[in-house]
């Protein structure tokens, strides 16, 4: 429920609308929208109990809007499916969404509002690494669990008891991509990273990894979120004569970089990570995206899961998402899917009242959860629970992604 108005009457009306929708969903046949049982079981009983209120801090505007809006679509879709199947032990989920505008200050304010005014028991988000780190103080103050959907290494490199991470962090993805580059004979690398939290975080992982893989950096260029022309950086890179460019970014600027590269006649390959694992990037770059090679999770092509149970989960979700929104899902939808379902599964196990602390404790006990990003097992020493085995390399070909050989 994304609220823009502040009047009491507007809020009351919207709450009434939400409750009416919940009751309507509860009247659907059991399992409706569950994709043949691929959704985690949501518990039995009719939805006559008070809702569990879960917040979300998403980038619905700003440079990360291309990530945040699919995340919101997924949360809306999955909350409706969970509620249609009876909620969580008879409790419907009420989703309260705040837009951080891809801004750390707004993210902090959004988290404070969700905690202090909305009394949420968990927060999904933030979309970006910088925004996730910015809300840490607020969630630690309140003891509210956060299921981050950002890929920065810093989010879980040092364990915060309240913060869990859905995507594969940069410490997994960057070395995975670089090993692939090494296998293709790349020795001289030009680095091009955004100056946001995700780009800085990735650069801190990439630079020490270069020496370990026998590579050298011959150029190190950055750009700011919102920049619309990167020809200056690319001209410097071209003169450095690298074997390849390693692009580490998550915003809309990546499409511009590939178009600028084509305009300058640069033909060396470009590699990247999860930040470009969305069709908006491919469509934005057009023909300039062809050949771009990147590493991320297997959900983009569910067959890459092989016989693992994640494949059925991914195929079911993709079918429902495409039916609802008329487009293919991406990895950011996967992060949101895993976040809301891990939360729902943990809520089922909470003994007694579902307080933020009790929910946090159950989230940390998650073991063997079959998700879209991989199979999650958390512990007090690991709040991500994924490995390189959950990753695969892709290449953009004719406007689509295919498995890289």
C-alpha geometry: globular
Proportion of residues in helical segments: 40-55%
- Give the CA-CA distance, first to last residue: 43 Å
| Secondary structure: number of strands | 14
The CATH C-level class name of the largest domain: Alpha Beta
Mean of all residue-level pLDDT scores: 89
CATH topology of the largest domain: Rossmann fold
Helix segment tally: 14
Largest sheet: 7 strands, mixed
- Named at the architecture level, the CATH assignment of the largest domain is 3-Layer(aba) Sandwich
Within the largest sheet, what's the order of strands? Answer: 7-6-8-9-10-13-14
Number of domains: 2
Proportion of residues in extended strands: 15-25%
Computed CA radius of gyration, to the nearest angstrom? 21 Å
Coarse structural class: alpha/beta
- The helix/strand series, from N terminus to C terminus, equals HEHEHEHHEHEHEHEHEHEHEHHHEEEE
Descriptive labels:
single chain, 405 residues, alpha/beta, Rossmann fold, 5-stranded parallel β-sheet, 14 helices, disordered N terminus
């Amino acid at each position: 429920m994304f609220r823009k108005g502040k009047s009491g009457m507007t809020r009351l009306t919207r709450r009434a609308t939400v409750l009416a929708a919940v009751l309507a969903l509860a009247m659907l046949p059991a399992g409706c929208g569950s994709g043949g049982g691929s959704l985690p079981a949501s518990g039995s009983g009719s939805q006559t109990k008070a809702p569990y209120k879960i917040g979300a801090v998403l980038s619905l505007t700003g440079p990360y809007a291309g990530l945040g809006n699919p995340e919101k679509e997924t949360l809306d879709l999955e909350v409706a499916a969970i509620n249609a199947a009876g909620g969580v032990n008879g409790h419907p989920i009420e989703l309260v969404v705040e837009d951080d505008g891809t801004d750390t200050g707004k993210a902090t304010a959004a988290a404070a509002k969700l905690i202090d005014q909305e009394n949420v028991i968990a927060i999904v988000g933030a979309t970006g690494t910088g925004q996730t780190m910015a809300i840490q103080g607020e969630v630690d103050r309140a003891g509210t669990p956060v299921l981050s959907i950002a890929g920065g290494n810093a989010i879980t490199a040092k364990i915060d008891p309240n913060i869990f991470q859905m995507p594969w962090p940069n410490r997994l993805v960057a070395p995975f991509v670089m090993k692939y580059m090494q296998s293709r004979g790349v020795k001289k690398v030009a680095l091009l990273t955004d100056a946001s939290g995700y780009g800085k975080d990735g650069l801190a992982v990439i630079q020490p990894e270069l020496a370990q893989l026998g590579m050298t950096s011959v150029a190190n260029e950055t750009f700011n979120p919102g920049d619309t022309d990167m020809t200056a950086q690319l001209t410097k890179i071209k003169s450095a004569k690298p074997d390849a460019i390693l692009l580490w970014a998550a915003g809309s600027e990546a499409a511009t970089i590939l178009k600028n590269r084509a305009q300058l006649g640069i033909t060396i390959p470009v590699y990247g990570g999860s930040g470009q694992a969305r069709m908006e990037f491919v469509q934005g770059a057009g023909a300039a995206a062809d050949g771009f090679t990147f590493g991320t999770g297997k959900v983009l092509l569910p067959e890459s899961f092989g016989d693992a149970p994640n494949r059925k989960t991914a195929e079911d979700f993709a079918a429902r998402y495409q039916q609802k929104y008329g487009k293919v899902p991406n990895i950011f939808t996967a992060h949101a899917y895993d976040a809301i379902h891990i939360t729902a599964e943990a809520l089922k196990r909470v003994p007694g009242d579902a307080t933020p602390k009790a929910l946090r404790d159950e989230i940390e006990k998650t073991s063997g959860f079959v998700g879209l990003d991989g199979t999650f097992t958390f512990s007090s020493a690991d709040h991500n629970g994924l490995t390189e085995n959950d990753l695969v390399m892709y290449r953009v070909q004719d406007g689509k992604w295919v498995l890289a050989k």
